[in-house]
Specification:
The protein is built from twelve helices and eight strands. The protein is α/β, with parallel strands linked by helices. A hairpin with a 4-residue loop joins strand 3 and strand 4. Helix 1 packs parallel to helix 2 and helix 3 packs antiparallel against helix 12. The protein is globular, with a radius of gyration of 17 Å.
Length: 282
């Protein structure tokens, strides 16, 4: 029976997931596959490269570096989270991404993006590290209005969370029957309409299918939360959520906020590690 780890996004809320992943790696928990959306992909790749501690380390170290995340970066490069700096220069020169470990780990790794022209999710399997691999991960985490469109293999791509925020159903469809799902919103959360939709309609007016997906995102997301609850009851899906709304926003330049979010994830994982180990090994 194939086991999967499913990670939703949420920008810096994803540091909650990082805390959980680090505890799982420290306990030697292995999955057959991992699928990540947006920050879930950007941070989840460290699971395949077996590098606990890396994601929280570079986020806190470069929290105040304009190249990492800033309005200045948005104005200069088109990406609020620096595309070239974050996804190429940093992993290749500053906080080295272990490409050899990534390539040799047989765990399947998927990043979810959204195709602007079709308004449909794209599920990209990434088994070997390369420039394009980093670009697929960047595309998955490229938020509308705050990022440039990423063009790869003839597709124009942005944030995978627009069309499949919690890709449990997809993972089940390709044979992952037993899944650990990490969400970054507490139980009972209900997503509302995107308040930036008028700006998205204007800036991406050439892509009506993407705009339609963005307009319906809250409906999709709330349906996925309901599906997640039902699957959880069946016993083949184990869900980890924060117990209350995380204080950190999509963007933060405060290392102390990042550490707090990370430690909330760690504490929950440490409290439930025996349950998790029993679930994975069942």
């Amino acid at each position: 029976m194939k086991t999967g780890l499913v990670l939703e996004g949420g920008a810096l809320r994803g540091l909650f997931s990082v805390g959980i992943m680090d505890v799982l790696m420290e306990h030697g928990v292995e999955f057959d596959g991992l699928i990540g959306v947006s920050a879930g992909a950007a941070y989840g790749c460290n699971y395949k490269s077996r590098q606990p501690g890396r994601a929280i380390r570079y986020n806190t170290q470069y929290a105040k570096d304009w190249r990492f995340c800033s309005v200045r970066s948005l104005l200069k490069t088109g990406d609020i989270f620096g595309g070239e700096f974050d996804y190429h220069y940093l992993p290749e020169h500053l906080d080295i991404f272990d490409t050899k470990a990534f390539d040799e780990n047989p765990m399947e790794f998927y990043a979810v993006c959204t195709d602007l022209e079709t308004g449909q999710p794209v599920y990209k399997k990434l088994m070997k590290c390369s420039y394009d691999c980093y670009e697929w991960i960047r595309a998955s985490a490229s938020m509308p209005l705050a990022s440039r469109i990423v063009e790869i293999e003839g597709q124009k791509l942005l944030d995978g969370g627009i069309t499949d925020s919690i890709p449990l159903k997809y993972f089940q469809s390709i044979g992952y029957q037993r899944n650990l799902v990490v969400t970054t919103q507490p139980d009972g959360y209900v997503k509302g309409k995107n308040k930036f939709l008028p700006l998205i309609r204007h800036s991406l007016r050439k892509y009506p299918h993407f705009i339609e997906a963005a307009a319906n995102r809250h409906l999709m997301y709330n349906e996925q939360l309901a599906y997640l609850k039902e699957e959880e009851k069946k016993g083949m899906t184990f869900v980890i959520r924060p117990t209350e709304k995380l204080k950190i926003g999509h963007i933060s330049h405060k290392p102390e906020e990042m550490w707090e979010t990370y430690h909330i994830g760690r504490q929950i994982a440490e409290t439930r590690i025996e349950e998790i180990l029993n679930f994975i090994s069942a």
